[in-house]
Amino acid sequence: MKLKNLTNWVLIIIGISGIIFFSVLFFIGENDKTQKVIYVQPTAIIKNIVAIVKPTSGLPIRLIIPKINVDAPFEYVGITPLGAMDVPKLPADVGWFNLGPRPGDNGSAVVAGHFGWKNNIPAVFDNLSKLQIGDEVNVIDEKGATSTFIVREIGTYGSKGDAANVFGSNDNKAHLNLITCEGTWNATLKSYSNRLVIFTDKE
To answer: Of 126, 181, 187, 176, nearest to 159 (Cα)?
Structure first.
């Protein structure tokens, strides 16, 4: 009974933190068309959740998306000193938010990748918008196990859109949500106008 109550509280906290998490979300640019995906969020709440929930899946090593020829290594990203979600350093890498669930564990694991890198250098999520409902996304972990996810929903959000459901889930199932930029490039603000989120469910 105590374990069930603890699980319910964790789900409640995740839901609340997800709403707060995306109350301020925006993209900023860096060096021409290199942009970062920024998620301002309650650091203490997220850390407390991770301390309570014990992972069962291995650490993610590679992200494979056959439809768009993605085979990318993972970087593990956390929170910047300004309280924002960090992003992968390299354009060909993806960044797993390691203060949330691991891909394959219950909850919403979140992975960010770059789009539209400077000097026309290919970025890992340049073609993420080509994914369709029913497409497959695979994560290989450190143990060599593969978790397969199926695209359920595709969402586009403006800089002030409410995207609280990207980080929060309460269905006791495993999800993997992929995030990148899209839309019109604003040279003055050095940012794209929208963010693209691919919602997937573990098969």
So the answer is: 181
Q: Give how far the C-alpha of residue 80 lies from the chain's centroid of Cα atoms, to the nearest Å.
A: 15
Is the model more confident about 115 or about 157? Answer: 115
pLDDT of residue 64: 98
- Give the angle 99-101-102 at the CA atoms, nearest 5°: 105
Paired residues of 185 in beta bridges = 192
pLDDT higher at 181 or 102:
102
Q: Hey, which residues does 175 pair with through a beta bridge?
A: 108, 201
Answer yes or no: are the C-beta atoms of 138 and 131 closer than 8 Å.
no
Contacts 24+ apart (CB under 8 A), 86-91: 87/36, 87/37, 87/112, 87/114, 88/112, 88/113, 88/114, 88/124, 91/34, 91/117, 91/121, 91/122, 91/123, 91/124
Rounded CA separation 28/134 (Å): 31
| Cα distance between residue 49 and residue 103, in whole Å | 16
> Could you read off the pLDDT of 127-176 as tens digits, one per residue?
999 999 999 999 999 999 999 999 999 988 876 666 667 887 888 899 99
Q: Cα separation of 189 and 116, whole Å?
A: 15
Q: How far apart are CA 145 and CA 85, in angstroms?
A: 27
- pTM of the prediction? 0.77
Structure tokens at 185: 């490039």
Query: What span, in angstroms and rounded, lies between the C-alpha atoms of 29 and 32?
Result: 7
* Residue labelled with tokens 């972990």: 141
